[in-house]
Amino acid sequence: MPILLFGSRHLELLTGDKTTTIRKLWKKPLNIGDRLHCYWNLVSKEREKLFEAEVTGVEIIKFGEILKNEDLILDEGFEDASELEVEFRKLYPDHTQEESLFQVIKFRRLPRKEWEGRKIDEKAMITKRADILFDLGKYKDSVMCYTSALRFDPQDVYLLNRKGDNLSRLGLFQEAVQSYDDALKLDPNNEYIWNNRAIALLNYNQPEEALKSNDEACRINPDNVLALYWRGIILEILGRLEEALDRYDRVLELDPSDPEAWNARGNILSQMERTEEAIESYDRALELCLDETPDASTWNRKGNALLELGRLEEAINCYEEALKLDKDNDVFLSNLGVTYMELSRFQEAMEIFRKALAINPHNEDARILMDECLENL
Q1: Which of 138, 193, 269, 342 could bond to 133 as cystine, CB 3.0-4.6 Å?
Q2: For the chain, percent of residues with pLDDT exceeding 70
Q3: Burial level of 160, CB count in 10 A (0-12/13-18/19+)?
């Protein structure tokens, strides 16, 4: 019973797009018609069976020839020959000479009913993988997995909603809305999916349509705090500040401990030039942050609130605490740099923006602000 082990780079296995793999030549070579049992990470605690397959072709090839075969390298999930060579030298330290023999195995995935070994719930396995990738922020890979899981059940509302969430995070808002629409055809009274649809439309610069979608969420459950919060954001973008303020107030009636709502309320009051009330809201948001056990994100949020209040030295302390916990976060560094700029400490700010750009060269805010510092030196 030949076993093939695969790492997480091979997500195309889930979609059925990957049908070849390269392995060191075994003492007993494979033959066409042999049965393969394919697993994720067999030697780890997370090992999972993927599927069973039938060998449809075997080609014996020298390692030197593999390094010259661009198509084969790409099919195996590597960007170029050097990346493949590094990985194979780790896997086969004594078997990567120019003349070392490998087998290129072609296979056909078998339907579950034809498996010889333990049958698994393929949909559940792929969904679990998708959820993990989503939580890791690997949205492109995650949406691939959710799409693959939907092949087993195209009417799974959870999968359609999560696929929409992935597409939104990839900036594919039209496709996200379509996925939410597919979910809502099956579950038209799901307030959370209506609200997710509203967020996608808002990000797609369609605030009026977003409000209509949010209307449905609030109609189904007028006390859904998340939907009410996003209603406030949509109304704020539409310039309907009094209505937005009313929605944030309603959120805080239902959950007085929501720091994001207090902060949003402060922002609205600032726009309405009700400064004293805004400061009270910002202070309340800050108090709630202080009640938490601070992690890097919390320290950053405290710094933002203090920056809003003009309490700049305190904001600097918060950003420095955040960076102790997450020293390579270019966003935290940028926030710290802005605070130094507010204090007219342009040389220090410039050095901080330079660090942020070293970490993330695509941080345009840091680049622009660094140029502004140069003009003020």
Answers
A1: 138
A2: 95
A3: buried
Among the candidates 158, 186, 221, a domain finishes at 221
Size of the chain, expressed as the number of residues it contains = 377
Residue 63 has pLDDT above 70, yes or no: yes
Is residue 352 in a domain? yes
pTM: 0.67
Q: Please compute Rg for the chain using Cα positions.
A: 27
Sheet containing 101-109: give its strands across: 3-6, 35-40, 48-62, 101-109, 20-24
3-state secondary structure of 355: helix
Helix, strand, coil % (nearest 5) of the chain? 60, 10, 30
> Residue 298: pLDDT above 80?
no
Q: Which residue has the higher pLDDT, 44 or 234?
A: 234
Distances (CA, A) of 171 to 176, 195, 202: 9, 17, 12
Mean pLDDT lowest among 72-76, 227-231, 292-296: 292-296
Q: Are residues 23 and 77 in the same domain?
A: yes
CA distance 337 to 358: 14
More confident residue, 11 or 353: 353
Q: How far apart are CA 310 and CA 148, in angstroms?
A: 50
Average confidence (pLDDT) over 47-63: 88
Distance CA 208, CA 191 (A): 18
Structurally, the chain folds into a number of domains equal to: 3
